[in-house]
Amino acid sequence: MSFPSVYPPKQLQVTKKLLVTIDGPAGAGKTTVSRALADRLGYRYIDTGALYRGVAYHAKKRGVPPGDDVALARMLEDLRLGFQRTEKGLRLTADGEDITDRIRTPEMSMLASSVSAQPAVRAFLLQVQRELGREKAAVFEGRDMGTVVFPAADVKFFLSASEETRAKRRFAELQGQSPASLEEVERDMRRRDEQDSTRAIAPLQPAADAIRIDSSAISIDRVVELMLGHITAALERP
Ligand code: DC
Q1: CATH classification of the domain holding 150
Q2: Considering its fold, how many domains does the chain have in total?
Q3: 124 is in which domain, residue-wise?
Q4: In angstroms, what is the span from residue 52 Cα to ligand 1's centroid?
Q5: With a 6 A CB cut-off, is 116 part of the ligand 1 pocket?
């Protein structure tokens, strides 16, 4: 016996291959929203922050100082960084080693922000990201997706939220993983925002043609619905 479904299908029937970018500061909800959008559209989800964290992890392992651009450039000459889809989900590998579970610590957040200011790191990851985006049909999450990496993306979003909201979200995410207090999480976040927004190359800023959404007073589900509205309009454009 079969029951008629009362729910619309979760995944939309999308054949057009768009490139969607979501930029914004830490804790704005980019990851949850990007994953949900990619699921609904049947697109790939690419977390570019993970790539910066991967470089940071590798630099620490090799003893390369995060501010030494020349040493970082040398290190990157033979680093193979990429995503692999496994039964455990999407995994980040560096030279074949699965480092997914090692890059989510507060230490790696700060270190990733530091190495991300270095020209050699940005140039290296620019190529990696553009290669990942070549076939489109993807949602890219990061800081400079709409401004530098994919200036011609089909739909660009800039997702923000108040400092207080973002610190609380980050704190909740870190429960069980880090003993940091809410005040410490907030202080680190502010330092990282400052570093990411004021660096000389590809600082965090909205692209002129980005759709700006503030998630402080609306639920993440609502953000996804709002974004889907804009994406649907883009899918329907000839
Ligand atoms: O999104 P995240 O918190 O995992 O990112 C970690 C750091 O990487 C962030 O503080 C700045 C850097 N980053 C960047 O410079 N450009 C991106 N596109 C993504 C991340």
Answers
A1: 3.40.50.300
A2: 1
A3: 19-236
A4: 6
A5: yes
